[in-house]
Amino acid sequence: MPGHAEDRAVKSRVPPVYPELAKRMRISGAVKVEATVDADGKVTDVKTINGNRALATAAEDAVRKWKFAPGAGVSVVELEINFSLGQ
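User: That's the sequence. What structure does it adopt?
Assistant: Structure tokens below.
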């Protein structure tokens, strides 16, 4: 049975690359993604739950590179990636 975000600690985060088009269009906000994490802490799948389409791919690409603490099995973790034009 999949776990929740609090079940798995993040060992390393990779910040998202702010899409140039989104910057030019002044698009910011949060993208909520669901990451599937295997027992070793490796992200095996990411899908966007909600958020701006212009930011979703960058959020997914970043989360695919994250590493989580090892766990008992596969977990599904919900994460929110924030894009701020002040970055």
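Helices lie at 20-24, 53-64.
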